[in-house]
Amino acid sequence: MRLRSTPAEHTLSVRLPEGLAPEMVTVCAKKGARLAVVADLWHLENDSHYEWEVAFSPADVDMNSVRAVFAPDGQLIIHVRRKSIMDGLPPPKICTPY
């Protein structure tokens, strides 16, 4: 998953494997300005589960503004609006549980 930040928003993007449909992707906001993303190819047994957790600084983002777009080419793009231009805040941290 790649992160691009501008003064207005953070944009997360990842190309998901072929065959993965939008209903196989879950994006949810979690307590503490965290975002969880899970993608499962239900019909496959190997290389079928993808998971990320992104931790933002709570002072940096508006978690009510999270918007996910699933493009036809398999690209998942998640937009998170920033509250304001704030210097000195740490960048979001992207973790995978594996």
Description:
This protein is mainly β and 98 residues long. Helices cover 0% and strands 46% of the residues. The chain contains no helices and eight strands. A hairpin with a 4-residue loop joins β6 and β7 (75-81). It starts with a strand and ends with a strand. The mean pLDDT is 86.
What tags apply to this protein structure?
98 residues; mainly beta; 46% strand
Topology:
Layout (H helix, E strand, L loop, with lengths): L1 E4 L3 E7 L9 E6 L3 E7 L8 E7 L11 E4 L4 E7 L11 E3 L3
Antiparallel strand pairs: 1-2, 2-7, 3-4, 4-5, 5-8, 6-7
What class do helices, strands and sheet pairing give?
Answer: mainly beta
Order of helices and strands: EEEEEEEE
How much helicity do the residues have? under 10%
Low-confidence stretches: none
Main sheet specs: 4 strands, antiparallel
Number of separate strands: 8
Average pLDDT number = 86
Strand order of the largest sheet: 1-2-7-6
- Which percent range describes the beta-strand content? over 45%
SS field, number of helical segments: 0
Shape: elongated
Give the CA-CA distance, first to last residue: 14 Å
Write down the Rg: 14 Å
